[in-house]
Write a structure and sequence with these properties.
The complex is a heterodimer.
Chain A (H helix, E strand, L loop, with lengths): L1 H5 L7 H22 L13 H21 L2 H6 L1 H18 L1 E3 L2 E7 L2 E3 L1 H17 L9 H19 L4 H6 L3 H7 L5 H18 L2 H22 L8 H24 L3 H10 L11 H12 L11 H4 L11 H34 L3 H25 L17 H19 L6
Antiparallel strand pairs in A: 1-2, 2-3
Chain B lengths: L4 H24 L12 E6 L6 E2 L5 E13 L9 H8 L3 H14 L5 E7 L1 H10 L6 E10 L6 H4 L2 E3 L2 H6 L8 E3 L2 H5 L1 H5 L3 E7 L5 E4 L15 E3 L3 H10 L5 E7 L4 E8 L12 H8 L12 H4 L7 H13 L7 E2 L4 E3 L7 E3 L9 E2 H7 L2 H13 L4 H13 L22 H7 L23 H12 L3 E2 L5 E4 L2 E2 L3 H4 L2 E2 L7 H13 L14 E13 L2 E15 L6 E7 L5 H18 L5 H12 L3 H16 L1
Parallel strand pairs in B: 2-10
Antiparallel strand pairs in B: 1-8, 2-3, 3-4, 3-5, 6-7, 8-9, 10-18, 11-12, 11-23, 13-16, 14-15, 17-20, 18-19, 21-22, 22-23
Helix pairs in contact in B: 9-20, 12-14, 13-19, 15-16, 20-21
Classes of the chains: A mainly alpha, B alpha+beta.
């Protein structure tokens, strides 16, 4: 028993590890395809991107061993401190950060650079798990809700200021965690409704949407009214209030779009919604990405055979647009395979999280699953033009050491918590 | 519902949406595997050599020559001695800078033409020196070469495909050479061959990074096929020589086959003008709208002239066919034909026959207007209304291939005009009849024809009632062409027997009639002279210009080998210019040479005869008129 406990691999979930290895391995093959040139030589040639990425992957092994080396209790105890370290590293960026592409999100170490926001996600997940797993904690109380919101939004605001709005979106994933732990679903429903209304207002115009919204809402209300006469009897002021708030929101969303959004953000929305047909300037990436993916067809062109991938037609293909390389060279079969891998990974994490008797492990597992889910959906959705262009990486796939290590850290802390779950009570 | 299900459901829905979208993109829209349309594939074309063109006797008319272009790839250029290069290429510094910038703008990675079509002697010299200048190299190209400088309009020329054509036809690339006129256009698909394609893989900067699919889809070029024309190169050249200084068109046809032996339009130009560095300069001169010479306008195919007297033959044939006259029918001529009561209702005649009656043979040989006007009137009046009579007449005329495009295998032409009853019904407010359209009797009035149409009529007369659609292609790739369009005879509506008296009449023309001065010993020429009046509208007034000199003929009488139509613009009487030229062409074609001092003298005087002074006058009249 004791000996087993000292073995750092004892109890870990090999299915997760295998999924991780397959995703990272396949991801690297696609980075290789996207960045190789005819005259590049060794796989570990550090002047190439695939060479560097291979080094980051190899360096994951000691990282994993270190993560597994600590006892799961360590993560629970030091969650707050790790969170504070993460916050400090984000604040430090404003003083010592390196500016790349207009965002001050990196610490430079010689030629390498580190992006603390990739690690902040893991620390936030730990902190939320710590907060919510407190026996005294009850999410029904507004006070406690606010506490949780602060833990989530503090790093999000700091990242927003860099500015790196894409990464901020990911923090919304924690609402799934809060919901799982008792927060009312209304936040997610209202949030989703707000997004849908916002997009509809852009597509059509405010008056149309207001009228349509009022009609639909009225039908729903009438339906409830008939079904259960007492239910809405004394709530006319609430209903009128709802009409007013929704109407104001729809009117103001046009204003926000035109006056608060930056031009490049407006462009991204307009391209997504088909309001603008630009394929040369701002829409170039998306257009090239779509071309590459659809040219892959059902079975793809084969490894290193995608002429658009080999010809570097898709900008940022090794980072945010890595999925287009999968689409071109491996076709529908390969792309669907990747999505199914991610789905299996997420199912497995949630399944394992639900088996935890310890609240901390379960909440952390939910945080992990939600973050991964957001990353995968937003990234792939953007690459296949279902969502506006948002620059966040595809977990385990996209080129970049910080992102790879960040996700490895997130995943393996959970694997460690999971390995030790039978001891905790 | 357990709260844990929410995320499961979200993951499943999102996963299915993503997979569904991928299915739509990759399976439904699917892969467009055509490498020609793939942005990542660069197609390099290997242009085959264009086929040669020969005449009917195997004489080479069009060949190819090598031309040398200096190319530049800007990214490969290293610092160089600009002044030395400019000296070498015989260009100035401005040209260098301009061309270099254009090339850079087009693509720094791809070759652009820097200097077109070097002279051969420059090439030999440059080849030794150019290696010093990295990024510059010489590329060979095939361009046309014309060993014989005649038949320019027949042969036509080739041009680079422009941006618009390239867009409309995906088989053509901009800058590719394609036939744009003459035979080069008609038989472009045979001559051009099939270009080879090499697919290269390029990146988004247009830099070539390897072969596409290891070259598995590359194709080789197939050379163009040689063709032989029905043209007799020597006859063509000789005809152009005889027409020097004169505007007009000559068409010679072999009646037994419909093969075009000569297709002469003058003034012509040396086809070598449309090749090489001077091409653009020359084409501006040749296509100048203000130049009434219009050398690129093919008069033999396109110019519509009133046919004049040769048209009387057709009227006589219709008269015989309709039974309104027979070979014994005779008229009197009083220096003209009176068709109405007014002073002006009189058609003059120059047949100078007093007494009579004038019968068909004499009427043809002396070209008597009165006879044919009477005949025409009988044809029209034979029906219940003038309109019906005109339709009967018109259908007969059209059966000779007049009044519409002939259907030959050259890209340009004109329909000419043969009026119908409806034509006059639409254009006349008042009633009309045979007398108001009496000019049709003598090939004037509304009628207009092209030289090739009239040559075809002559061939039909020589064949006594049928013709083969004229054509210019004899062989492709050494094999005879068997195109049913050109091998099935077309019948006229006139019975074969009616041709004999006409041919006899035409024979008399060259024995004792209007063509007697042009007879050739040993050759029975059968023909008809014509002098066609022509008018232009100047300031709303119909103004008469100098007459066109016309002649149609075939020979020998009993075994027709050549049928010919000659139009000389503003050449006066048919007997003075068109007749000698016709006889010389016939003699040349049948005997291969001109014999006898008298004939040689005629040959010389025709070659030296220039009508330029008349054309200059005409130009002054027209130009002053349009200035006002």
């Amino acid at each position: 028993m004791r000996a087993e406990k000292n073995n750092i691999f004892y109890g870990i979930d090999w299915i997760l590890v295998i999924l991780y290895v397959v995703l990272v391995g396949f991801g690297w093959m696609n980075i290789y395809a996207a960045t190789t040139t005819d005259n590049s030589s060794s796989l570990l040639d550090l002047s190439t991107r695939y060479g560097k990425q291979l080094l980051w992957i190899i360096l994951c092994i000691p990282l994993i061993i270190i993560i597994l080396f600590f006892n799961s209790k360590f993560y629970e105890k030091f969650a707050t401190i790790l969170y504070l370290i993460g916050i400090l590293s984000l604040i430090g960026l404003f003083l010592f950060g390196k500016n790349i592409n207009g965002a001050q999100s990196w610490y430079g170490f010689g030629s390498a650079s580190l992006q603390p926001s990739e690690f902040a996600k893991a620390f936030t997940a730990l902190a939320i798990a710590k907060l919510l797993s407190d026996r005294q904690y009850n999410l029904k109380l507004i006070k406690n809700q606010i506490k949780a919101f602060i833990v989530i939004f503090l790093p999000a605001v700091l990242i927003a200021l860099q500015p790196d709005l894409g990464s901020v979106l990911v923090y919304l994933a924690f609402f799934f965690v809060l919901n799982r732990e008792g927060l009312t679903l209304n936040y997610i429903i209202i949030g989703s409704l707000a997004i849908v209304l916002f997009l509809l207002t852009l597509l059509f115009n405010a008056p149309t949407i207001i009228i349509a919204f009022f009609i639909i809402l009225s039908i729903i209300l009438l339906y409830f009214l008939k079904k259960n006469k007492g239910y809405l009897k004394f709530n006319w002021h609430k209903i009128i209030g709802l009409y007013l708030v929704a109407g104001l929101y729809i009117f103001s969303s046009g204003y926000i779009f035109n006056n608060v959004f930056e031009q490049h953000q407006r462009d991204r929305f307009e391209i997504l919604l088909g309001l603008s047909k630009d394929t040369k300037k701002i829409g170039y990436n998306t257009n090239q990405s779509i071309q590459a993916i659809s040219s892959g067809g059902g079975f793809g062109k084969g490894f290193l055979q995608g002429e658009r991938t080999q010809g570097n037609f898709v900008p940022e293909q090794d980072t945010d647009y890595i999925f287009s390389a999968v689409g071109e060279e491996w076709g529908f079969v390969g792309s669907a395979f990747v999505i199914i891998l991610f789905m299996l990974l997420l199912y497995r994490i949630i399944y394992l999280a639900e088996t935890h008797k310890n609240k901390f492990g379960r909440i952390y597992g939910y945080g992990l699953a939600s973050i991964l889910f957001f990353h995968v959906v937003i990234n792939i959705g953007m690459v296949i033009q279902l969502l506006p262009t948002v620059g966040i990486p595809l977990p385990f796939f996209s080129y970049g050491g910080s992102s790879l290590w960040g996700f490895t850290l997130l995943l393996f802390i959970f694997i460690k918590l999971d390995a030790n779950k039978s001891y905790d009570l | 519902m357990k709260r844990s299900f929410l995320l499961y459901i979200f993951i499943t829905i999102a996963g299915l949406i993503l997979i569904g979208r991928l299915f739509q993109l990759q399976v439904i829209q699917g892969a467009d595997l055509d490498p020609n349309r793939n942005a990542a594939v660069k197609v390099i074309y290997d242009y085959p050599e264009r086929g040669y063109i020969y005449d009917r006797n195997g004489k080479l008319l069009v060949a190819n020559q090598l031309s040398y272009d200096v190319m530049v790839v800007p990214n490969e250029v290293t610092p160089l001695d600009t002044i030395e290069l400019c000296k070498l290429l015989k260009i100035d510094k401005d040209y260098f800078i301009r061309k270099y910038k254009t090339a850079q703008r087009y693509s720094p990675w791809l070759p652009s033409v820097f200097l077109k079509q070097l002279a051969k002697e420059d090439f030999a010299f440059l080849q030794e020196k150019l290696h010093k200048f990295k990024g510059f190299y010489i590329q060979k190209r095939n361009i046309r070469d014309y060993p014989v400088s005649s038949a320019a309009n027949v042969l036509g020329y080739i041009s680079e495909v422009n941006e618009l054509d390239a867009k409309n036809n995906p088989n053509f690339q901009q800058g590719e050479l394609i036939g744009t006129s003459g035979v080069e256009k008609s038989y472009d698909s045979i001559l051009r061959g099939v270009k080879g394609k090499k697919f290269l893989h390029r990146n988004r900067l247009n830099k070539i990074i390897g072969k596409y699919k290891e070259g598995s889809e590359d194709t080789l070029a197939v050379n163009g096929q040689d063709i032989s024309l029905t043209i007799d190169g020597e006859l063509q050249r000789y005809g152009e020589l005889l027409m020097s200084g004169k505007r007009g068109g000559i068409v010679a046809i072999e009646p037994k086959t419909g093969e075009i032996l000569a297709l002469i339009s003058t003034p012509t130009y040396n086809p070598n003008m449309m090749v090489g560095r001077q091409r653009s300069k020359n084409s501006v001169i040749l296509m100048d709208e203000d130049n009434l010479d219009k050398p690129t306008f093919d008069r033999a195919l396109k110019a519509e002239y009133p046919p004049g007297s040769p048209f009387k033959l057709i009227n006589a044939l219709i008269g015989l066919q309709e039974g309104v006259i027979d070979s014994d029918f005779g008229t009197y001529c009083y220096g003209g034909y009176r068709y109405g009561n007014k002073e002006s209702d009189f058609q003059k005649c120059h047949c100078n026959i007093f007494g009579g009656p004038i019968k068909l043979n004499r009427a043809i040989s002396k070209s008597c207007n009165s006879y044919f006007s009477t005949t025409y009137r009988k044809i029209i009046d034979n029906a219940s209304t003038p309109s019906k009579g005109m339709d009967i007449w018109s259908n007969h005329v059209k059966s000779f291939g007049l009044g519409n495009y002939l259907g030959y295998d050259l890209p340009v032409g004109s329909p000419g005009l043969i009026p119908t009853g409806k034509f006059y019904d639409d254009n006349n407010k008042f009633s009309w009849g045979a007398t108001t359209t009496i000019s049709n009797a003598i090939g004037q009035g509304e009628i207009s024809t092209t030289p090739i149409q009239l040559a075809n009529v002559t061939a039909a007369i020589a064949n006594k009632g049928y013709f083969y659609t004229p054509h210019i292609l004899k062989k492709a790739n050494g094999k005879n062409i068997n195109n049913p369009k050109f091998t099935i005879p077309k019948k006229t509506t006139i019975d074969s027997k009616h041709y004999d008296p006409i041919i006899e009449g035409m024979h008399t023309v060259f024995k004792t009639g209007t063509g007697k001065l042009s007879k050739v010993n040993g050759i029975d020429i059968v023909g008809k002279t014509g002098t066609s009046e022509n008018f232009t509208i100047i300031n709303g007034i119909r103004t008469q210009l100098d007459d066109h000199s016309i002649l149609v003929a075939f020979a020998p009488k009993d075994d027709p080998k050549i049928a010919i139509a000659v139009f000389v613009e503003n050449g006066g009487y048919g007997s003075t210019i068109a007749a000698p030229i016709t006889s010389l062409l016939i003699e040349k074609y049948l005997n291969k040479k001109i014999t006898g001092n008298n004939r040689k003298w005629i040959e010389n005087s025709m070659i030296n005869l220039s009508l330029q002074h008349i054309y200059d006058q005409k130009e002054i009249i027209l130009k002053t008129a349009f200035k006002d």
